[in-house]
Amino acid sequence: MTTSILIMNDHPIIREGLSAVLDNTDDLKVVASGPSSLSIRELVQRLQPDVLMLDLQILGSIYQIANDAKESKPGLKIVLTSALSLPEHKRQAERIGAKGLVSSHDDVETILECIRNVLSDSMFFATDNPSTTLVSKQREGLNSQMEHPLSPREVDVLCCVAQAMTAKEIARDLHISVKTVDRHKANIMNKLSMRSQIELARYAIRNGFVEA
């Protein structure tokens, strides 16, 4: 039996990558994919997918979008995707009734395991997996032996900057305001004597905060 999947993600590269991976699996089929500008309610109602893979950073209210989708098809399984899968994202996923959460940094096996767990009425959150995200690796001491002047929150922001995330995306991921993100970035640049985000990204990769 083939499982039908609808992918909604505002990032074309991630959207196309997920589609290619899932369509290459015998028992999975992507019936449609698109950005948040499309009507998810209408798509779910028309296509009746088994699984909706929904980007956590999608434009609009994630809660309203999820509720609209579930109203269009009772029993719909929702898997959230995120640039960084953090513990607070698990709580957010649970609040909207999503059964799974994966990061765009997770490998193919993890994403497939998540979908299959969700289909069997189990829950799967990448934050529960020993294969943790870049930010949580930092929190767990990946760079604990390195001397640096940054606070834990500044390290979080640095990791996000190194992943080419915008201030708005960082704010949503870390649940802080854009103004606070900008202040952290300014403090980081001041502490590290750097003048651009490119320099910050190079610093983060060179010193092991993130993987190249």
Mind explaining what this structure looks like?
- Strand 1 (3-8), helix 1 (12-23) and strand 2 form a beta-alpha-beta unit.
- 49% of the residues lie in helices and 14% in strands.
- The chain is of the alpha/beta class and 212 residues long.
- The protein has 2 domains: 3-128, Rossmann fold (3-Layer(aba) Sandwich); 134-206, Arc Repressor Mutant, subunit A, CATH 1.10.10.
- The protein is elongated, with a radius of gyration of 18 Å.
Summarize the structure.
With 212 residues, the protein is α/β, with parallel strands linked by helices. Helix content is 49%, strand content 14%.
Shape type: elongated
Q: Beta-sheet strand percentage?
A: 5-15%
The CA-CA distance between the termini, in Å, is: 39 Å
Helix content: 40-55%
The H/E string reads EHEHEHEHEHEHHHHH
Task: Count helical runs.
Answer: 10
Using brief descriptors, characterize the structure shown.
Rossmann fold, 212 residues, 10 helices, six-stranded parallel β-sheet, alpha/beta, 2 domains, single chain, Arc Repressor Mutant, subunit A
Give the topology, please.
Blueprint: E1 3-8, H1 12-23, E2 28-34, H2 40-47, E3 51-55, H3 62-72, E4 77-82, H4 87-96, E5 100-103, H5 108-119, E6 124-125, H6 134-139, H7 152-162, H8 167-174, H9 178-192, H10 197-206
Parallel strand pairs: 1-2, 1-3, 3-4, 4-5, 5-6
